[in-house]
Structure to design on (237 residues):
């Protein structure tokens, strides 16, 4: 099953990128002359995707006015997250607007078209309830780290203490979901950050016996959380 719809989470304020995000949302910060979100859409445009649903919130007009309802070959629609209640809450807003399988990407992660095609078009993965893209990192204490055996994920540990990390494979924030995820989101409790976290929803699915696959990317993935990340991304691109 080729996935036709992607969801991009772009409602965040990007506090760690201030002052760059005082007047624009994080995904509209410029990278090599164009917004981070435009880099993501370019990657999606070069695949089989037909529609992108963007979850907007903070200074949403910047995104809506810039991209409108179409970007190159992609149809664009929007849902508004009025309050920043976390990634699981943001994803819950697209229930009823996506098909059986759909892609979700954090709006601060740039991935290659090759990787996006792999996760969205490889039909043997239809049997998995969730596919998560991971990448190897040198500083696992900064990330959500994936615990896995062979290709099956059994846990995601948020920012583990140095020496206690289950692996060096970080969750990139790129997911292939089945619509079963919405049932798990409905019973996801508030986290310590007072948000509904999609990683907690995934853990609920794991505990209920869901098949969650790890795809370790060999492609470069650019994760922009801080001004230092932005500077490194400028060099990589």
């Amino acid at each position: 099953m080729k996935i036709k719809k992607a969801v991009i989470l772009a409602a965040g304020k990007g506090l760690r990128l201030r002052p760059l995000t005082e007047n624009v949302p994080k995904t509209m910060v410029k990278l090599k002359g164009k917004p981070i979100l435009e880099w993501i859409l370019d990657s999606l445009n070069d695949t089989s995707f037909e529609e992108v649903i963007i979850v907007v919130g903070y200074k949403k007009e910047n995104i809506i006015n810039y991209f409108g309802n179409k970007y190159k070959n992609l149809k664009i629609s929007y849902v508004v997250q009025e309050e920043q209640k976390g990634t699981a809450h943001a994803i819950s807003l697209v229930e009823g607007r996506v098909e059986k399988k759909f892609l979700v990407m954090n709006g601060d992660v740039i991935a290659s078209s090759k990787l996006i095609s792999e996760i969205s078009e490889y039909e043997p993965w239809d049997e998995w309830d969730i596919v998560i893209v991971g990448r190897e990192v040198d500083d696992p204490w900064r990330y959500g780290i994936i615990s896995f055996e062979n290709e099956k994920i059994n846990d995601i540990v948020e920012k583990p203490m140095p020496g206690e990390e289950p692996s060096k494979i970080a969750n990139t924030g790129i997911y292939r979901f089945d619509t079963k995820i919405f049932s798990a989101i409905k019973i996801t409790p508030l986290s310590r950050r007072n948000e509904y976290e999609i990683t907690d929803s995934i853990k609920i699915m794991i505990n209920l016996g869901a098949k969650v696959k790890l795809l370790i990317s060999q492609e470069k993935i650019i994760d922009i959380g801080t001004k230092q990340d932005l500077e490194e991304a400028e060099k990589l691109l």
